[in-house]
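Lecture 7 notes: from sequence to structure.
We start with the chain below.
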Amino acid sequence: MADLHQLLEQTSRTFALCIPLLPAPTRHEVTLAYLLFRIADTFEDAAAWPKQRRVKALEDFTRLLNAPSVEEARRLADRWADPPPTTHEGYLELLEEMPAVFEAYLQLDDAARASLQRHVGRTAEQMAAFAARADAEGHLQLTDVADLRAYCYAVAGIVGEMLTDLFLSGRSALTSLRAYLHERAALFGEGLQLTNILKDAKDDAAEGRRFLPRGLGRDEAFALAHRGLDAAAEYTLALQQAGAPRGLVAFNALPLLLARATLDRVAQQGAGAKLTRDEVFALIASLNDALDEGRPVCEAPRRPAKAISLG
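Predicted C-alpha cells for the same chain:
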C-alpha cells in the first residue's frame, strides 16, 4: 500500500505539518480525508481539461465515494491520466495511487467512512456545480459576497464540518461542545480559504481565475476573512479550555496562527506576500511553548470594527 503520509507531504506543506500532530485514530482518518479532498481539488483546478471533463471527473469521483471499489478507482485513475489534469508531480502521484487510497478508505470503521463519504461527496458535488458555471476557457467568476461565501463553504467550510465530526467521535469529554463547535466549523474553513484567496489573488488573476467578486472592497474582503479567523480562534480556544488532547488543539491552532500572520503580511505587502520558513518555525515554537505552559494558544477574536455585508 502507498505511504499515505508521503502522499500528504507531496501534496500539502501546511497539512503535512498539522496532521501529524493529531492523536490516533483521528490522524489516519484526517490524512485520508485530506487526500480525498485533494483529489477533488485537482479536478476543480484542472486547467488542462475543458470544463465538461472537470465536471464529469467530479461526478465520477462522487459515485466512487458512494460505492467504493479499488478496481473502479484503478480504472478511473487510468482514464484520468490521459491527458493528466495537472503538471504538479505530487498531485499526479496521488491520482496514480488512488487505488491504494480507496483501499485504506474501505478499511476505515463505519462511522469514519460514513463521515468522509458524506462530506467529501458534498464538496465534490458543489465543486462540480461551480465548475459547470465556468466560461468557455474554464474560468470561474464569482458574482457577489454571497457567491464567494458559497464557494468557500463548498471547498473549505464542509471540511470544517467533517473535521468537527471526526474530532468529537469517541471523545465523550467534548460532547458538550458539539453545538458550539458546529456553529463555527464552516466559518473556520471560510477564514482559511479567504486568506488563501487574498494571498493568491495575483497568481489567480494571471491564470484567469477571479474569486474576489468585482465590487467587493479590499477592506470588506479582509474583514470577512478576519471574521472567519475569529470563529477559528473561538473554536480552538474552546477545545483547549475543555481539555481536548494536546494534538487536537495544536492541529487547529497552527493553521489559525499561520493564517493570521499571512493575512497581516498580505494586508501590508499585497497579494503574493508569504511568511518565511523561519517565521513559520517561530510560530510553531510559540505554539509549543503555550501548550507546555498552559497558556491560550491563540489571541482572542479581534472583532474588526468595520461592518460586514454577508450577502
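Points to note: The radius of gyration is 19 Å. The chain has 14 helices and no strands.
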